[in-house]
Amino acid sequence: MAIINDIKMPVKKSSKSKKTPPSQMLRVPTPLIEAVKELSRLHRLGQTNAVLLGLQSLISNIDSNTDSDIGASETVKQLQLRLEKLESRFDSDIDSKSILKSVTNLEEKLEALTTRLAQLEGAMMVLQRNNSGAKRSSRSYPNQYYQREAPQLQPFEEKNLALRLVTDVATLRQKRETMTEKEFVRWCKDRDPSSMGWRYEEKDKLYYPVK
């Protein structure tokens, strides 16, 4: 008679009863997505050596990308520094040009003022000389009442007449050469302190008074 032993075999729990651990999401740079997918496929196939080689290649790519990013960042910083230097140099050049222009304008104004003062000084000397002659003439005849004529003016050189007329030699010469004799005499009368006209004599290069 056969003896049958009932052996209770352990029952494996269904895999469905186990809870699946939550998946972990990893952020991967866009250029490396395809490489990560390939490593995942090899891992599922159990090809450990291929996975290790792929990881080494992936790490090398990440390192090279990081170095290139750092290099690009340093290049950008150097470009910014050079741009700032160029801007500061450009600003300093503009300041130097504006200062030089202001100095030039100031020198021109001072030169024109000096010329004007010299002309006024010459006119005052002529007036003082005329007044001194009139006073000496009145002291010579203190007891006589008569209508005294103005002192006779002597011919003037071009530079002296320019001072008397409160102008410069170039202007005096230009007026004489472009005007008729009558127009030039009238122009001189309008500027002369004694309303005296002046006529130019080519033979001795002098200007003679004309009433």
Automatic annotation (TrEMBL):
<feature type="compositionally biased region" description="Basic residues">
    <location>
        <begin position="10"/>
        <end position="19"/>
    </location>
</feature>
<feature type="region of interest" description="Disordered">
    <location>
        <begin position="1"/>
        <end position="24"/>
    </location>
</feature>
<protein>
    <submittedName>
        <fullName>Uncharacterized protein</fullName>
    </submittedName>
</protein>
<keyword id="KW-0175">Coiled coil</keyword>
<feature type="coiled-coil region">
    <location>
        <begin position="103"/>
        <end position="130"/>
    </location>
</feature>
